[in-house]
Amino acid sequence: MPDKFQVVVIGGGPGGYVCAIRLAQLGFKTACVDSRDALGGTCLNIGCIPSKSLLNLSEKFYNTKNFSEQGIEVSGIKLNLEKMMKNKEKAVSTLTKGVEFLLKKNKVTYIKGKASFKSTIKISVLNSKKVERIVETEKTIICTGSEPVSLPKISFDEQRILSSTGALSLKSVPKKMLIVGGGYIGLEMGSVWSRLGSEVHVVEFLNHITPGMDSEISKEFLKILQKQGIKFHLENKVESIDKKSNEVIVKTSNKEGKKISFECDVVLVAVGRKPNTKNLNLQKVGINLDDKKRVKVDKKYQTNIKNIFAIGDVIEGPMLAHKAEEEGIAIAEIIAGQAGHVNYNLIPGVIYTMPEVATVGKTEEQLKENRTSYKIGKFPFIANSRAKSINETDGFVKILADSKTDKILGVHIIGSHAGELIAEMSLAMEFGASAEDIARTCHAHPTFSEAVKESALAVDKRPIHF
Ligand SMILES: Cc1cc2nc3c(=O)[nH]c(=O)nc-3n(C[C@H](O)[C@H](O)[C@H](O)COP(=O)(O)OP(=O)(O)OC[C@H]3O[C@@H](n4cnc5c(N)ncnc54)[C@H](O)[C@@H]3O)c2cc1C
User: Fold this and answer.
1) CB–CB of 456/377 below 8 Å?
2) Which residues contact 7 (CB under 8 A, 6 or more apart)?
3) In a mutational test of the pocket of ligand 1, which residue from 17, 36, 114, 144 has the highest number of ligand atoms less than 8 Å from its CB?
4) Ligand 1 atom closest to the CA of 146, numbered from 1
5) Is the CB–ligand 1 distance for residue 277 below 6 Å?
6) Which end of the chain, C or N, has fewer beta carbons within 10 A?
7) What is the pTM of this model?
8) Cα 41 to middle of ligand 1, angstroms
9) Which of 48, 88, 301 is the pocket-test mutation for ligand 1 (most atoms within 8 Å of CB)?
10) Which pairing describes strands 146-148 and 273-275: parallel, antiparallel, or unpaired?
11) Is the CB of 47 under 6 A from ligand 1?
12) What would the pLDDT profile of 234-288 be if each residue is shown by its tens digit?
């Protein structure tokens, strides 16, 4: 007799596990199926969490080496990469076990194995010993996430030709690392290895890094990363990647046809991710995909099959953990007959480099394109007392507000703690705040958040400290 559930969630990443917990809270008999050894999906196992662990420790290593300028003489600093990796693995395993505990606590049945559709109401789950279990379900949510894409004819060996997964687990610091792609994953991983001693080169096809970001912030970000020693080769296209016995040769060419050849120890291909729809047997039940091979859903996350839904990286939208989580909650509430909703205008994005970059709402380019008339308020961290007192003065805050109503339309921050500062502005924008609302809110002194207030004052051309 197959097990019977009201809802089966396929995928235990931030979309899937959050969705399963919310469904259980709402009273549904729920199962969550995941094929990995541990829950938490890409984010906890090979994404957000391990990358942030390495970003944090590599930043500490780099800063400690450079403290003498600030009056702290430290000698004998040595890198123990093996320990650093163990620390990362501990963070991952603590958190993934935590997710397993949360599923148990909420009475979600966790089934380990690869899921595929037998029919619209029957799911086959194959475990690592190839034992099949059939589960019956009234509704299914597909949350199978995404996986890295490579370049044509180049496959990842995770030793010399790396995806982000391999770049998170190198056993030694490469002398020279080439990164294909100037997006956030490439730049975060490039920062880690550059701080630990690698010579890092980034080859980017476009004439700027971080596509889609407010261009003023992107330009400043490029300057800061260059100052930190990362070398950028913009408007360059990779022509070939050849693996030799102890090096990789990467050949690129630019618009004018000028060729460069790089000999490096490892190449990280960070050119994007693709939705993970393989092995699910979607064609068997007739689920439609869109032109980018993502599961096609309507505004209520419903596929063309009425009892099957999809959320997270496997559908349209930014591939971000918090977007997947919000959708997980929304779909659970929709299924329960409530008004689940995600505000796609206000999904913040953060890059956890040094300094951080954080953004929410519209970029200046988008406002121009939409012919929205806007005002700009900017404030540099060099004029912020907290930033000055701790020597973290790179970057600025930029607020874009509607020129007629003063409503905040977009906020872009490059600077220390930008990832935390953006939360205030996401909340403010969710409540429809004006720049004047932020300008009149008392912010503690001395804090980085005063730069946000000052930039709101600057929208009306009345900053105090600049
Ligand atoms: C290096 C890196 C750093 C990142 N950093 C950040 C960050 O700082 N902030 C951020 O917001 N996002 C970050 N991301 C993106 C984030 O990890 C994803 O957006 C997020 O994990 C998507 O969640 P999801 O639930 O849709 O899918 P996933 O997390 O990919 O989870 C899907 C799960 O489904 C399982 N699965 C797939 N097919 C099947 C099947 N047939 N049967 C059973 N299980 C299956 C997979 O094994 C996986 O565990 C990062 C990604 C990478 C690679």
Assistant:
1) yes
2) 20, 23, 28, 29, 30, 31, 137, 138, 139, 140, 141, 335
3) 144
4) 30
5) no
6) N
7) 0.97
8) 5
9) 48
10) antiparallel
11) yes
12) 999 999 999 998 899 999 999 888 999 999 999 999 999 999 999 999 999 999 9
Q: What is the pLDDT of residues 155-173, one digit of tens each?
A: 999 999 999 999 999 999 9
Nearest C-alpha neighbor of 357 from the set 259, 216, 192, 237: 216
Strand partners, 154: none
Q: Which pLDDT belongs to residue 70?
A: 87
* 9 Cβ contact list (under 8 Å, min separation 6): 16, 17, 19, 20, 23, 30, 31, 32, 33, 140, 141, 143
186 lines ligand 1 (CB under 6 A): no
Active site members: 445
The amino acid at 125: V
Q: Which two tokens stand for residue 307?
A: 């009892």
> What is the per-residue pLDDT for 66?
86
**Per-residue pLDDT tens over the stretch 355-413:** 999 999 999 999 999 999 999 999 999 999 999 999 999 999 999 999 999 999 999 99
All residues at 6 or more sequence positions from 64 whose CB lies less than 8 Å from its CB, including other chains:
74, 77
Ligand 1 atom having least distance to the Cα of 279? 41
Q: Using a 6 Å cutoff on CB, does residue 112 contact ligand 1?
A: no
